[in-house]
Design goal:
By secondary structure, the protein is α+β, with helices and mostly antiparallel strands. It is built from 18 helices and 14 strands. The longest helix has 16 residues.
Length: about 500
C-alpha cells in the first residue's frame, strides 16, 4: 500500500488531465496500480506478507543492537552466519535501516590512485579504553594502508607518543616486508610541529625515523580528510564498524591477537568495493623498497634512578632490579608486552609490562638478593657498634631496615652523630623518633639539632692509615663489668 501523499499526487495529476501512463511515470508506479487507486482511493486488497530468511534471526539481531546500536550489517552477518543465515546482505541492510528509522548519508570524496609501492597512508583512531583492575587506559589504533592495494595493517596501543608512532610504523613495514616512497599523514604533533599554509615544519624526531627508509612525508592540508580518504574514510571507518563491534577483550595482547586474525582472514582477503580485488592479491610486494639491515629501536625509553627498595619507577609502576644497582641510573625500554632494564648498555632485568598503575612488579631473585644483602650488612662492624648501644638502637635499626633505606649510609651518619652528641643523647633521640615512626638518620640529626646541645670534646685522633680511622668498637656493657667485680670479690672472700 502506498502513502497518502502519493495518492493525493495521483488525483492531482489526473485532475490536470494527464493520462494514466504519464501519471505512472511521474509517481514511479505501474499503470495498474495507478488505475486501481483512481477507481478506489482506499483499496481493500491485503498485501501478502512473504516470509523472510531473516525472521528466525531477528531476536538475536536485537540483542546485538542492544550491545552496539551502530553495528554494521557486515558485522552482524558474520555473527549470524554460523547460526544458519544464508540470505543476501541486502535484506539485512534493509532491515537495519527500518529498525534504526533512518538511512545513512554517503558523503562524496575525491579518490586519489597511486602506483604499487608509491604511497602509504596512516592515521590514528580513538577506541575508548581498556580496564586493568582499577586502572583505565586510553585505547588508540594506528592504521597503515598501502594505497594501491588497500592492504591494511593495524595496531592497538595505549598512547600516541612519538616512540609509539615509530614502533607502529616499523611493525607495519615489517608486515609489508618493505617501505613506500611516500607517507601521507595528517598534522599530528608527532609528525608536524608547525604549519602556516603550505609552509610546514616537521617534527625532527619523525624525520630522523624516516631518514634510513628514505621516505618522503606528505602532510595533508588542514580540514582536508579526502586527501587521505583511503585511511580515514576507508581503514579507520572499516575497523570501527567491521572489526570493533560485539567484541570483548581481556587485555591489549588479546585485543591485538583478535585484530591480527581479523586482518588476515577478513580485511585483507575480502573483495574491495573500489578495486574489485582482494587487497592481498592486488598487493605488489616487489614494488616496495627493501628494509634496511639495521632497524631503529622504537621502544618507549626512560632514564630511571634505582631507589633504595631496589626498584625503578616507569609508567606509574615499580619494577625491581638487582640490589647492587641501588642509587645507580639505568635505562628502561618497553614495548607493549615487555620491559627491559639496562645498566651501561647491558640488560640487568626483564619484566612483563603491567598496564595497571601503582603496582610493584618484582622478581623473586631480586627479593632473595636483597635479603642476602641485608644479612651481610648486619654482620658489619658498623652494625655491631650501633647495636651495642642497647636494645633501643637494635630495634630502631630493624625498623630502619624494613623501610628499604640504604643501611650503610644511615649507619655511618648515626655513628657520627654519636661521636658528636654522645651515646646518651643519641639514644634519647632514637626513642623520640621511634614514637613517631620516623626512621632515618636525617630524623635523628634534626631531633639532636633542635633539642640537644652538642658535647664539647676533642675529635678522635686520626692516623695516617685511613682504614684504621673507621674501626668501630662496641659500647662496653656496665652489667658485665658489675658481674666481673662481684665475682672477683667472692673469690677474695
Amino acid at each position: 500500500m502506498i502513502d497518502q501523499r502519493t495518492i493525493f499526487e495521483i488525483y492531482r495529476l489526473a485532475n490536470e488531465g494527464l493520462s494514466v501512463r504519464k501519471i505512472a511515470h511521474r509517481v514511479h508506479l505501474n499503470r495498474k496500480t495507478v488505475t486501481r487507486y483512481l477507481d478506489d482511493p482506499n483499496p481493500t486488497r491485503a498485501a501478502v506478507k512473504r516470509p523472510s530468511k531473516l525472521d528466525p534471526f531477528k531476536e538475536e539481531i536485537s540483542k546485538m543492537l542492544e550491545i552496539d546500536p551502530k553495528a554494521s550489517a557486515v558485522v552482524i552477518a558474520q555473527r549470524i552466519a554460523p547460526l544458519g543465515f544464508d540470505g543476501e546482505i541486502t535484506i539485512l541492510r534493509d532491515y537495519l535501516r527500518k529498525v534504526r528509522g533512518r538511512s545513512r548519508k554517503r558523503q562524496p570524496f575525491i579518490r586519489f590512485e597511486s602506483p604499487p609501492g608509491q604511497q602509504c597512508q596512516i592515521d590514528w583512531g580513538h577506541f575508548g579504553s581498556l580496564t586493568y583492575g582499577n586502572t583505565k587506559r586510553k585505547l588508540s589504533c594506528m592504521a597503515v594502508i598501502e594505497s594501491h592495494s588497500r592492504l591494511l595493517y593495524l595496531e592497538f596501543t595505549h598512547s600516541q607518543r612519538q616512540e609509539t608512532l615509530h614502533r607502529c610504523l616499523l611493525n607495519a613495514f615489517r608486515y609489508f616486508n618493505g617501505t613506500p616512497k611516500e607517507l601521507v599523514h595528517d598534522n599530528m604533533v608527532t609528525a608536524v610541529i608547525e604549519r602556516d599554509g603550505p609552509l610546514i615544519r616537521f617534527n625532527e624526531a619523525f624525520l630522523q625515523f624516516l631518514l634510513p627508509f628514505k621516505i618522503v612525508p606528505i602532510a595533508c592540508n588542514v580540514a582536508s580528510p579526502h586527501e587521505k580518504g583511503k585511511i580515514e574514510k576507508g581503514a579507520i571507518h572499516y575497523i570501527r564498524y567491521n572489526f570493533w563491534p560485539l567484541r570483548s577483550f581481556t587485555d591489549l595482547k588479546d585485543l591485538q591477537a583478535q585484530a591480527d586474525h581479523w586482518r588476515d582472514h577478513i580485511a585483507n582477503v575480502r573483495v574491495h568495493s573500489t578495486t574489485g580485488q582482494k587487497p592481498i592479491d592486488r598487493f605488489k610486494g616487489e614494488a616496495m623498497r627493501p628494509l634496511p639491515d639495521l632497524l631503529s629501536d622504537c621502544r618507549d625509553t626512560a632514564l630511571c634512578k634505582v631507589y633504595p627498595d631496589f626498584s625503578i619507577r616507569f609508567d606509574g609502576n615499580s619494577y625491581t632490579v638487582p640490589p647492587w644497582a641501588i642509587d645507580k641510573e639505568v635505562v628502561a625500554k618497553a614495548d607493549h608486552q615487555t620491559l627491559t632494564i639496562y645498566y651501561r648498555d647491558k640488560p640487568i632485568a626483564t619484566h612483563t609490562r603491567s598496564w595497571e598503575k601503582r603496582k610493584r612488579i618484582e622478581l623473586p631473585s631480586h627479593r632473595e638478593a636483597a635479603r642476602k644483602h641485608q644479612r651481610n650488612l648486619w654482620r658489619s662492624q658498623e652494625v655491631a657498634a650501633f647495636i651495642s648501644l642497647g636494645e633501643e638502637a637494635k630495634t630502631y635499626l630493624e625498623h630502619l631496615t624494613s623501610t628499604n633505606q640504604p643501611i650503610k649510609k644511615n649507619l655511618k651518619k648515626l655513628l657520627a652523630l654519636k661521636d658528636e652528641y654522645g651515646a646518651f643523647a643519641l639514644i634519647g633521640a632514637i626513642k623520640k623518633a621511634s614514637l613517631h615512626n620516623a626512621y632515618g638518620a636525617h630524623y635523628i640529626e634534626n631531633i639532636l639539632y633542635q633539642k640537644m646541645t652538642p658535647k664539647k670534646h676533642h675529635s678522635p685522633v686520626k692516623v695516617k692509615q685511613e682504614n684504621l680511622n673507621h674501626i668501630r668498637l662496641q659500647q662496653p656493657s656496665l652489667a658485665q663489668y658489675d658481674a666481673f667485680i662481684i665475682k672477683r670479690r667472692k673469690n677474695h672472700d
